[in-house]
Hints:
Shape: globular
CATH class of the largest domain: Alpha Beta
Strand content: 15-25%
Number of domains: 2
CATH topology of the largest domain: Rossmann fold
Mean pLDDT: 87
Order of helices and strands: EHEHEHEHEHEEEEHEHHEE
Largest sheet: 5 strands, parallel
Strand order of the largest sheet: 2-1-3-4-5
CATH superfamily of the largest domain: Response regulator
Number of helices: 8
Amino acid sequence: MNKAEILIIDDEPQIRKLLQINLESNDYKVIQASTGKEGLILSANHPPDLILLDIGLPDKSGHIVLKELREWYNKPIIILSVQDSEHDIVSALDNGATDYLTKPFRTGELLARIRAAIKRSQSIENESIIACANLEIDLIARVVKKKDEVLKLTSTEYNLLALFAKNEGKVLTHRYILKEIWGVGYQTETQYLRVFVGTLRKKIEENPNNPQHIITESGVGYRFQ
């Protein structure tokens, strides 16, 4: 039996039922909430391993629920929504969503993203060292090695790299990165971020002009792989 527990926050009974059937058939334990308030109460009383959150809730916007969850909840939150505008997607990612799927979605794709998100979350919780290709990041000692050679990173460069590594495979928006590293007052300083990403790439990439780790997502932000 899969020990992972998933909370569905969605006001559509047929969607909740469909998700429940597919998730339970893949050995997940499922909890359901039909409103944002109910979802917040359930997640606070017994934090699940992952939350599937709809944006269009009857009592409050899913964007607000996401913000309130991210004040304390640090596990994956995947948005499932009919809203597919760039504004909604970027806003959700800005506010800490792990992933975003638009309805109707393919069940196989959703299950794959759930598996990846839970695996990544458990890896971060259980490991103090993140190894990827020729890089090794020790989150406790705050030491980064490239091909077993210790890199000299500034405190900001290290914090930026650690944020990327902890969110491997996830697109991080400019605003989210700036808020996490420099604070709320820097959320519009995208040029500031580009400079630091450039210096970090020179230190960790084999070819900074063709980066293999810090990938630019045009107009949105960056993704670490």
